[in-house]
Amino acid sequence: MDLEAAYAVLAERGAPAYRVEQVRHAVTRDLIVDWDEATTLPKDLRNALAAAAPVRELVLGDLQESADGTVKARFETADGFPLETVLMRHGDRHAVCLSSQSGCALACAFCATGAMGFGRSLTRGEILEQLLWAARTAQGRGARIRNVVMMGMGEPLQNLAEVLAFCGLANDPEGFGLGARSIAISTAGWVPGIDALAAQTLQLKLAISLHAPDDALRERLMPVNRRYPLADLMAALKRYRAATRRRVYVEYLLLDQVNDRTEQADRLADLLHEHLPGACHVNLIWYNPTAADLEASDPDRVRRFREVLDRRRIPQTLRRSKGSDIDAACGQLAVRGAREARAARRTAPEPA
Ligand code: SAH
After folding, report:
1. pLDDT digits 0-9 by tens, 230-244
2. Helices (H), 181-229
3. Domain range spanning residue 167?
């Protein structure tokens, strides 16, 4: 849903100013799925909007619901790129995990999206449309979306302009009205994006996927570390902190015998005390199985790791992600066979 294209239609037609508000309300509050539902608008305007700014550009594919109430939706862009969106229930609060790209270029060893390769970046409208789908689905359960996390497919900081434009739309008090602090952007450590984010006035939450406390291991798990090693990354986070005074959320995936030794917990604490003193929170994450040859940490090892962080006074929480029974959990988003499907479409004759 390209809201700006809809506003352009209004401007072109010289529509009165109050139409802007009607359009915005129809899309972000009434959650229309088709312009014909926007009955405050005259019929010819609805037709013009439907032609230039369709409410639904993404094609909804499979929907899967997990035992814990998580719903995963699979979409395809109009030009055939797959993506996934996950709606999570935390009591009566719902959160949605959005994709910023179809696939991902960063190829982290533990992540299914990385294994799928990169398709293309999504537009602000394609990101907004995922939120609108989630809001409608939550509404069907009598709930509202409280939090948005950019933790679906893709590296949001490699698509920063569109992601920020989306955040502005989601945050607009006259529209969806989500607090900036309720929107989290998660990055694998794309340093120029961290600096660009630090320069923003919008008070977004920043999460950094760290996963290893030294370069040798981080490079093995996350190839992006070759381009932006820990020294560069930590320096960027320090600049971000200095510029925004905001807390940085550090994500640390616990991989059995790989990054879960107590010495590694100590290294992690050293790094954080040095670069983000009193300014971070560690989210420890259970590894969700993918095709990678890795395993979730043994609970005893997790306990010892956490004891070290506690002793070193690093605030931390351990979370188990939702929806793993339907491959909707962190790192499990990948559309199997999507590349084949796309290749097949490219070679198919164009419809007459
Ligand atoms: N590219 C961004 C956002 C997407 S990943 C980033 O890297 O932050 C969202 C989170 O899920 C990241 O912290 C990522 O490292 C984590 N993740 C990836 N694969 C996972 C897996 N198999 N199990 C649990 N978490 C995983």
Report:
1. 999 999 999 999 999
2. 191-198, 215-221, 224-227
3. 56-347
